[in-house]
DNA sequence: AGTGCTTATCGTCAGGCAGACGACTATGAT
DNA sequence: ATCATAGTCGTCTGCCTGACGATAAGCACT
């Protein structure tokens, strides 16, 4: 059949971001409050339209920078540049997911170290880091006792998918270091795993495992006592991206 | 800012399919010959526009049925219904990936047992199963000595991503059974792993591993000699989807 | 200075699993 | 009958993990 521009329906394409970080021993996601209908006043994932001349990854990186100020870590870049990890997550295109029109959203997953307070267009009250447990619980009450409204659109599903991706990916990759500052201790890395998985890990076995995996951690020579207790060695992320054998998430 | 329908550029949204199967000990993908420009006469992945009222998964299932006659396996369905496995792979949206217009393609991955010859609109010469090695080699020569033109658009990248997804996913899931008929032997399943990974596996250790993993295989009671040699027990895929501990892909 | 608390780090031991590989079994082909 | 082919069961060894004891080195008290 010949090419016919009227043969396909027009879509709007957006990128939505699941930006995760670890704060106060809890896995948190960036949420923004919607200023207009639909879902006005509800919390949602940050995102926006893909521009006419933009690649999907570029659009996601632009949105990430606008919301958090983070540069995206170029996946091809070999060295640690302290940018956030950014990868495509999945695409959501239910015809009814946006009541206004047909929107296909390409969700991306970003992992970032603990950041200062977020800013969404300079208005702090419209953006916050919220524990993912709180964002995902349906019809419950938050820690402040206020009722929790579910996220706008299908963003609860997107967030759940992003969290699951992060939980599984730190098993077999060095991605957990994306939650840490440039230099970090073994204990800090362990607390990342504990927060993301929601479990307690044995400090001794964890130490043996991560220091024994070639290319995972590179000692910087320095030490720190910022966690209290005995001074701990500082490490930087090594070049390895795949962990073989993987970290094992405890059963049940 | 208020809602402005003119604030976003229109996109065309397509689904492209990476349909994999194992034929004659080789991992093969379904390719169709393009009948019109651009890339007229070149091989490409099957795919098409998403319709106005269709979900992405529905569109992918429809395209799969049109090209192969296969029903998609509902991911929520508990029992084996002999449908093909279908899952979303990734989304490709480079502004220049289609010279005609701005197209975002949501690629899907389908895994199917060995099928009779494909049919694309009834014309067999326009669709074929080709070994993925052949489709992915650049500027070489196929097994018949003819020069191999690379796949149309960015389909080589999409195919490579799909193959990599399949290779890694059969490690930690029971997905390799999707390449097998309803009833199959341990040796047939092993040949699937060998074809997808391109390695030789020890039959004895493989047998111990798959029969020892709870929920992976369910014996049907029957036996077959269709592979020659001693009769082999027939199995059906068990309910387990995640293998823990995983199958290990041999190093190097 | 000493005591106690905290975190980091090293070591030991037993159990489980994977790779290497020997041995035996049950068919069809010659 | 003999051979070739594939399937199935065992054994052994080394590695990794989970459980957990023991020691080290800071800080905050008194």
UniProtKB/TrEMBL annotation, chains A, B:
Species in which this protein is naturally found: Streptomyces curacoi
One example GO MF annotation: hydrolase activity
Top-level taxonomy: Bacteria, Bacillati, Actinomycetota, Actinomycetes, Kitasatosporales
Protein name, as recorded: DNA hydrolase
Family, per entry: Belongs to the Nudix hydrolase family.
Keywords per UniProt: Hydrolase
InterPro entries (alphabetical): Nudix_hydrolase (IPR020476), NUDIX_hydrolase-like_dom_sf (IPR015797), NUDIX_hydrolase_CS (IPR020084), NUDIX_hydrolase_dom (IPR000086), WH-like_DNA-bd_sf (IPR036388), WH_DNA-bd_sf (IPR036390), WHD_NrtR (IPR054105)
PANTHER family in alphabetical order: ADP-RIBOSE PYROPHOSPHATASE, SLR1690 PROTEIN
Nudix hydrolase domain location: 10-154
């Amino acid at each position: 059949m010949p090419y016919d521009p009227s043969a396909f329906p027009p879509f709007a394409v957006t990128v939505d971001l699941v930006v995760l970080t670890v704060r106060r021993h809890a896995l948190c996601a960036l949420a923004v409050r919607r200023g207009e209908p639909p879902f006005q006043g509800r919390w949602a994932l940050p995102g926006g339209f893909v521009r006419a001349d933009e690649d999907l990854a570029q659009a996601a990186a632009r949105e990430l920078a606008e919301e958090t100020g983070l540069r995206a870590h170029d996946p091809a870049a070999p060295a640690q540049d302290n940018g956030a990890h950014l990868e495509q997550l999945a695409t959501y295109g239910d015809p009814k997911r946006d009541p206004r029109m047909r929107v296909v959203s390409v969700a991306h997953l970003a992992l970032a170290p603990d950041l200062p307070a977020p800013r969404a267009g300079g208005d702090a009250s419209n953006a916050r880091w919220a524990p993912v447990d709180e964002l995902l619980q349906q019809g419950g009450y938050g820690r402040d006792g206020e009722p929790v409204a579910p996220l706008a659109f299908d963003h609860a599903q997107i967030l759940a998918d992003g969290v699951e991706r992060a939980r599984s990916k730190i098993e077999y990759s060095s991605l957990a270091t994306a939650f840490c500052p440039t230099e970090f201790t073994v204990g800090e890395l362990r607390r990342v795993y504990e927060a993301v998985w929601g479990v307690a890990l044995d400090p001794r076995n964890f130490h043996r495992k991560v220091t024994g995996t070639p290319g995972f951690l590179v000692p910087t020579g320095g030490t720190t006592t910022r966690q209290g207790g005995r001074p701990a060695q500082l490490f930087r992320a090594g070049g390895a991206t795949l962990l073989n054998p993987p970290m094992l998430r405890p059963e049940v």
